[in-house]
Write a structure and sequence with these properties.
With 328 residues, this protein is an alpha+beta fold. The chain has nine helices and 19 strands. A hairpin with a 3-residue loop joins strand 7 and strand 8.
């Protein structure tokens, strides 16, 4: 079972941290906190996460932040209004005491704080210190961590093509929230897709593994992939290897999208990744439409025009960048 704390629970955990460290904390407060923490495992998990974050601030003189929190708490009204005001105080506390640690848990912050990132429609080539080479696709963010024992890339979002320089002493690993891809050869692709990670091998061999589950002691599952093979990893499983069309998988590195008898809705969703404005459509209206062809990714307006030439659809420009797709 997943006990990932909600923002409201994290906020309440922050309140209890402040209250338990206040000068006027009473035994009744401690008892109420224990009741709250024992109500649900998400409560205990949120408080434990907060303590771990705050521990990283040891030695950074948190006293001024705590003093500001105490002032905020003391100034909060009593009664029903006090609880609402405390939410603001708690939010302030998170910002003052553990903003950095909490911020990196959000997708937007991970993107902004990443070692390397691209904007929508942009691509970037990164030459690493070991002579490995990574191409970042549109709206992608990754961190690089090279140690004496391994080379690790953390892909927060988006898609990368990795060309690995040989070094038998230091394995090359790409990690996402769902699992890892360990290079046993030279070239492969890792792509975050919604609640899953896709791995495709261009050359040689890659070992793809699911991430260990927190509440499951079973060993992680792994699949060995060879050239033109791929898999998908979710938080619960990893699929068996399957054939991959390498032209379609690598087409974005050359600036095009190659599709073969693919649903129009899927093609539009892929084009959306390269476009800042919205592509709006009703999936039911185009459910029977399929596409085969090669579309330019650096000019999504032209790509949409080509689709309109191939299929019975109409493109309405609702703004400078956003479009609506309708059947003709």
């Amino acid at each position: 079972m997943d006990f990932k704390p909600s923002p409201e629970v994290i906020e309440r955990a922050a309140y209890w941290h402040v209250r338990l460290h206040a000068e006027d904390v009473a035994d009744a407060d401690r008892a109420e906190f224990e009741r709250w923490r024992n109500q649900h495992e998400a409560h205990a998990e949120a408080y434990a996460q907060l303590q771990a974050m705050l521990a990283k601030f040891d030695g950074l003189q948190p006293a001024p932040a705590m003093k500001a929190l105490e002032v905020a708490l003391q100034s909060a009204p009593t009664g029903g209004r006090r609880r609402k005001s405390l939410a603001g105080s708690v939010a302030l506390g998170i910002v003052l005491v553990a903003a950095g640690a909490l911020a990196v848990q959000t997708d937007k912050a991970r993107y902004m704080l990443a070692d390397y990132r691209t904007e929508v429609g942009q691509q970037q080539v990164v030459e690493l210190a070991d002579d490995s080479r990574i191409i970042l696709n549109t709206y992608t963010a990754m961190d690089v961590d090279f140690s004496e024992t391994e080379r690790r890339i953390t892909l927060h979002q988006g898609e990368i093509l990795v060309e690995v320089a040989g070094d038998a002493a230091k394995p090359f690993i790409v990690e996402t929230a769902h699992g890892t891809a360990r290079a046993l050869g030279t070239q492969f692709i890792v792509k975050r897709v919604g609640d899953a990670t896709d791995v495709a091998v261009v050359e040689s061999v890659v070992e793809a593994c699911s991430a260990p589950r927190i509440f499951n002691k079973a060993e992680k599952q792994c699949v060995r992939l060879h050239a033109a093979e791929g898999t998908q990893i979710t938080k619960d499983s990893i699929l068996a290897s399957r054939p991959v069309d390498l032209e379609s998988a690598t087409g974005w590195t050359a600036g095009f999208l190659a599709v073969d008898d693919q649903r129009l809705a899927e093609v539009l969703a892929e084009l959306q990744r390269y476009r800042k404005g919205s592509i709006r459509f009703n999936p039911d209206d185009i459910a029977d439409m399929r596409v085969s062809g090669v579309l330019p990714l650096k000019d999504t307006d032209r790509a949409l025009e080509m689709l309109a030439e191939l299929l019975p659809i109409r493109i309405d420009h609702s703004s400078a960048e956003s479009v609506d797709i309708h059947p003709r």
